[in-house]
Design brief:
single chain, alpha+beta, 5-stranded antiparallel β-sheet, 11 helices, elongated
Length: about 425
Amino acid sequence: MIKKDKIKDLHYSVTGVLTADEIQSAADKVLEKFGADAKMPGFRKGHVPLTVLRQKYNASAMADAIDKLMNADLEKYAADKKIRLAGTPRTDLGKWEIGSDAEYTLEFDILPTLPEIDLEKFTVTKKVTKLDESEVDAAIENLRRARSSAEKQPDDYVAQNGDTAVIDFTGYIDDKAFDGGAAKKHHLVLGSGSFIPGFEDQIIGHRAGDKFDVNVKFPKDYHADNLAGKAARFAIVLHEVRKHILPELNDEFAKSIGQETVDKLREHIRNILREQYENASQQEMRNELLDILADKVKLDLPEVLVDQELQMAKSEHEHHHAHCDGKCDDECKFDDKKERKDAERRVKLGLILAEWGTQNKVEVSRDDLQQAIWAEAARYPDPKQVFEFYNKNQNALTMLRGMIFERKALDAMLTHVKQKEKSVKPSELFEPARAK
């Protein structure tokens, strides 16, 4: 039974006492349940006397019993106080010995009470854009390029932007070849930007059979530290140039895309673009509302949740910067002050969305989950692996459900805020998303 408590903001420290008799009684129940299937020499299965079970398993049964009793005390205390724990409590049993009463202390943080949020006082900007037919034309050209055939050109043909160059290359720094800097018969689409800046430009204008050097400088933020920021020379052998021949835009081409005519293909693309515009605009409003909630809603935060979030951020940072190998440049340093502020923001917004969503009966349906998994699976060459991953990984499924819940809660909130429209160019809808 909990005898006293000490409360400071969201942090609780409670002290309780378990008598020796109730500990033994609870331990006996544990032993009886275990004994129902226990096998011991000289006894039939399930018929081992309690006294024998005590002699061998009493200590472990008591540990289990104490956990159960403390949890029962804590559940009653939380129900009486109408509080919700923010995490697993820290337990201290002091110097308890078997056969004596146990005085325990539990320390834990509780979840804050969400203040009333008057969403109608908030205003977000809804960016709207007019569909330009040039966007449809560009999308169709991309489809034609994706279905183009690369035809080998005569040796006197000059490589142009958009062609595929079949090359051998060997990279040198200070006239020494470096690891990973060589390949044979590599197919490089000129203008794709897949190689170091300036590399592809220096191949344009050459012909099959040419041997020449390409001189470039690796970006300062290049992923390989031994190459970052260094000047390099690549010895090139151009074997052949292939020109991409685009299919003719006609109804037959439209049918290959799943549409009956060119007109229906264009309308199909218009619908896709309009949906993309709407999704991008909706995401902008979500981001803006998150900024408003983080700034306007006052909420005490459980320190245990902030510490957990900060630790996850630190682990992720260390994973992504393992290549630093002890170096302490600005990129590799973990800025505790900044990261803690970001962690506090994430915890705060997570609590707001969870509480508001629950209060307003936001639910994640089976269809919501299936659609999200299908959408993710479509991004991978083998969708089956994605489905198997979620079938076997309950934690990942729980995280996905949480993400969907937060998005649905935000969208529900947006139906209550004021929205002012702003006309923008399509490109403004697809600017790099801000980090949240």
